[in-house]
């Protein structure tokens, strides 16, 4: 699937709705949300994690799903972990660039 990536404080996958098999003007909202979650979950999980981390997150997600009844918990968990990594990277970079008001 071809996507454009946008950034505005977080990363966004920009996808033509026809690639997802939904029509944003007529498909049920739940179908659109499921399709969007699948895209964001797959991109978030494919970017950062080692195979052992994926196994761990999948197992935790399955256990959460059993308790909550929400089948998308694993995708949500990968998204949360991806955001955590992005924020951690931002913290690491924070002091590596000169401040805008730096006179040096």
How would you sum up this structure, described in words?
It is a single chain. By secondary structure, this protein is mainly alpha-helical. The chain has one domain (about 5-95). It is about 60% helix and about 10% strand. A hairpin with a 3-residue loop joins strand 1 and strand 2. The chain is flat. The mean pLDDT is about 75.
Task: Offer a few descriptive terms.
single chain, 104 residues, mainly alpha, two-stranded antiparallel ribbon, flat
Summarize it.
By secondary structure, the chain is mostly helical. It is 62% helix and 8% strand. The chain has one domain.
Q: Provide the number of structural domains.
A: 1
Question: Oligomerization state of this entry?
Answer: single chain
| Average pLDDT reading | 76
Distance between the termini: 46 Å
Sketch the major β-sheet.
2 strands, antiparallel
Shape: flat
Tally of DSSP helical segments: 4
Q: What percentage of the residues does DSSP assign to strands (E)?
A: 5-15%
Q: Strand order, biggest sheet?
A: 1-2
Structural class: mainly alpha
Radius of gyration: 17 Å
Instruction: Give the SSE string.
Output: EEHHHH
Helix content: 55-70%
Uncertain runs are none
Q: What's the number of extended β-strand segments? A: 2
Topology:
Layout: E1 4-7, E2 11-14, H1 17-20, H2 29-48, H3 51-68, H4 73-94
Antiparallel strand pairs: 1-2
């Amino acid at each position: 699937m071809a996507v454009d990536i946008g950034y505005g404080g977080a990363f966004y996958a920009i996808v033509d709705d026809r690639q997802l098999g939904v029509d944003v003007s007529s498909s049920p909202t739940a179908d659109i949300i499921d399709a969007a979650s699948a895209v964001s979950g797959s991109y978030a999980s494919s970017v950062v994690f080692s195979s052992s981390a994926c196994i761990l997150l999948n197992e935790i997600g399955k256990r959460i799903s059993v308790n909550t009844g929400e089948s998308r918990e694993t995708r949500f968990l990968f998204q949360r972990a991806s955001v955590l990594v992005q924020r951690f990277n931002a913290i690491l970079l924070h002091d590596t660039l000169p401040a805008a008001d730096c006179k040096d």
